[in-house]
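Handout, page 2. Input:
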Amino acid sequence: MREHVPYRSSLMVLSILLIAGCSSIPNIFKPAKYSLLSSTKNFIAMNNIRSNGTIVDKSDFYPKRAFAFSYRYCARNPVEAKQDILEYQLLAKNVCDNNKGQLIHQENGTWCVSSVNSAEERPLFYARISSTELWAELCPDGPFVTLKVIENTYASAGKWYNAALVLGYQPYYQYRKIISINTVDGQLYQMPKEPVVNELWTEESQFIYTSIGQVVCLFEQLEGPALGYTYRGTVDSVSNDKVKVLVTTKLRGDLRTAPISEPLEWHKEAYITAPANAWFVCG
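Output:
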């Protein structure tokens, strides 16, 4: 007999500027001259601590898989992690400045844009760096440091702009919400994590809700020092904005960010029903 597992929603100084390659992008806007993605990879390669990490959040959902890069490494201690964060934030600002852009802080994080607060405003890149203190199981000495970049590397202006909209960029309009930050604490906005039940649907949520049989995952963040668990299975049915998934695998940690995947004991077959925006595409 298949079991149904209840879902519990959880309140869950550098200037490395590398010139990006040219492409046949229409004249709607010019591509960034300096690439944050290339600069980020150079930042990672500067020492053995940073370079001994791994690419994470390898999403199967377009456009994330085409335009987003996430990387995580184990810092040696909290002090070095904090210093890396400050250095990378300044790097992102320098790249933006050299592209004659401006950093704006939106609800999902910080974007570098050209022609800010005008009808011609266009996103150049998104940048984020953060650390987590839940490192004990995988990082013996210091916290995880995670970098995330969203940037156009090859697509036409139209495809990139539409992808940026899906990935969280909010274009200019009269009532757009811009967040003020204290730059003494850094150049990038570190948004608080909202409970998944409060998050809005995205195109990924809509895709999952209309794709019976799709392989999806759900991450359950536990209270305390535990890393939490990822549940993986296939969409069985949908109803009232919720998705019922036949879950066949349980993994330790967040599959999107954990450097390794550790399978755990699980029922042969069990159902989990959760809001559509709690799931993410993972296969």
